[in-house]
Amino acid sequence: MKAVIRAEDLGARVSKASPLQPKRTMEFALARLMTAAAPATPSCRFCNAALDRVMVDLGVTPLANSNPRPEEANDERKYPLICRVCPDCLLVQVDDSVPPGEIFSDYPYFSSYSAGWVAHAAHYCDDVMRRFSIGHDSFVVEIASNDGYLLQHFMARGVAVLGVEPAQNVAAAARAKGIATETAFFGLATAKRLAAAGRKADLMVANNVLAHAPETRDFVAGFAELLAPEGVATFEFPHLLNLIEKVQFDTIYHEHFFYLSYLSAERIMAAAGLRIFDVEELPTHGGSLRLFVCHASARHPVSARTAALRQRERDHALDRIAGYEGFAARVAETKRAFLEYLAEARRAGRKVAAYGAAAKGNTFLNVCGVTYPQIEAVYDLSTQKQGRLTPGSHIPILPPAQIAELKPDDILILPWNLADEITRALPEVRSWGGRFVVAVPAPRFL
Q1: Is there a single domain that holds both residue 320 and residue 335?
Q2: Which domain holds residue 155?
Q3: Residue 104 located in a structural domain
Q4: CB neighbour list of residue 265: distance below 8 Å, 6 or more residues apart
Q5: E-assigned strands of 318-357?
Q6: Cβ neighbours of residue 275 under 8 Å, at least 6 residues apart?
Q7: Which of 324, 340, 361 is the last residue of a domain?
Q8: Whole-angstrom distance, CA of residue 441 vs CA of residue 446
């Protein structure tokens, strides 16, 4: 018989290990001292200018995609999370504080757990196969291919595919589906090794990975190396304009080294001899861009959408430093409003739980300083996370099947970009009068 995971049991195991708050306060102080001793002005990863403009300082937090076991809760490593904007090239980026291998070698995020994201990948496959005549004689390479959530759709249509995925655990899940997968960090050296096998890619896919590669020049140079002369590369990433306008500070975490506008992405591509010939605006991740990129010498015509988006970003001052000012104050207001909501809910005796142990939720909880039992549990479909704790806030992660045992009055949807999918999946919550809440940019009930 399968053991039931209970929030109170996980919480008790943490409490028994040692008192949390004193240790957490000491770690925070030590981390701040370390930060003070570090070089005050890092350099831009793209143009090497001095990064002397802080867009927002989110304090000292654990890795957003780490989920400790209860017995590991007091051994978490925490790192400064400071987001800066380059005064020269205007590339937004977080400080170097965590080696990439520490984040990505064993990764808890499996893309296939989101039915909406898998459907998004299937639609993409249909669209690009039709638009760019991808067929049985084509070769498709995805960078950061995760568990094969996207390449499985091409493979099912008889297209040769290859995934490149640095996390061994999720690469193994892709191979179990029969998807050829290289376990490697992608860059120029990896691209040269793959190209030496004699086949260039007709299509390269990079979903939510351009921001994850700290050596951005080397990373994009790999695409220029592996892409066929008339091949197409597509890049998807959350749009910086939405992050600023909608106060999406919870999308800032250590593994997201960059926060990209169209203007900054255009500079990065041009440095590698690539050009953007089309762009789509997508609803995913709170508002994303999909760039269509080719070699500068390729024949793909430039769409009018590129010029329109370039101008819209200029209209919002993303081409000058003024467009990045005032963000920290808006983050502080979002935090204040949420803590006020949470205090009122608890005064009224309402039980508050959360859904989705997502990285953005972990950033949000840590910045707000919320811990167990202020939020009594986080429910998540991923068996990789169940029975563990949210990083820093140490809230027990439970299977969604157990939500009716607690019958929370309010359920905070942490991955707010999946709010529709989550509310449809939990119709029983309404039966006991439960409410769904999102907190960014301000608390509201769905």
Answers
A1: no
A2: 111-324
A3: no
A4: 210, 235, 237, 276, 289, 291
A5: 352-355
A6: 269, 293, 294, 295, 296, 298, 302
A7: 324
A8: 14
CATH code assigned at 32: 3.40.50.720
Q: Would you say residue 2 lies in a domain?
A: no
Mark out the alpha helices in 133-234 (DSSP H runs).
151-156, 168-176, 188-195, 216-226
**What are the tokens at 298?**
């390729």
CB atoms under 10 Å from CB of 24, counted, come to 19
Domain termination residue (choose one: 324, 351, 369): 324
**Alpha-carbon distances, residue 38 vs 33, 47, 79, 215 (angstroms):** 9, 21, 12, 21
What are 170-224's pLDDT values in tens digits? 889 889 999 999 999 999 999 999 999 888 999 999 999 999 899 999 999 999 9
**Same domain for 86 and 206?**
no
Alpha-carbon span 233 to 265, nearest angstrom: 13
Determine the average pLDDT of the residues in 412-435. Answer: 94
Residue 54: band (very low, low, confident or very high) from pLDDT cuts 50, 70, 90: very high
| Residue given tokens 């820093």 in the structure block | 392
Q: CA 329 → CA 190, 235, 238, 324, distances in Å? A: 42, 31, 21, 11
pTM: 0.84
Residues 353 and 393 reside in one and the same domain:
yes
User: 202 and 279 in one domain?
Assistant: yes
- Cα separation, 239 vs 264, in Å, equals 11
* Per-residue confidence (pLDDT) for residue 36, from 0 to 100: 40
Q: How many residues appear in the chain? A: 446
Sheet of strand 352-355: strand arrangement: 397-398, 378-379, 352-355, 410-413, 435-438, 444-445
Residues 234 and 351 in one domain: no
Q: Do both 288 and 338 map to the same domain?
A: no
| CA distances, 340 to each of 370, 404, 415 (Å) | 12, 26, 20
Does the residue 174 lie in any domain?
yes
**DSSP string for residues in 276-317:** EEEEEEE-GGGSEEEEEEEETTS-PPPPHHHHHHHHHHHHTT
| 69 within some domain | yes
Which run of H or E residues covers position 131? helix 115-132
Q: How many CB atoms lie within 10 A of CB 179?
A: 23
Q: Estimate to the nearest angstrom the gap between the alpha carbon of 264 and the chain centroid.
A: 18
Same domain, 57 and 163: no
Q: How far apart are alpha carbons 174 and 180 in whole angstroms? A: 8
My answer on whether 203 and 275 are in the same domain is yes
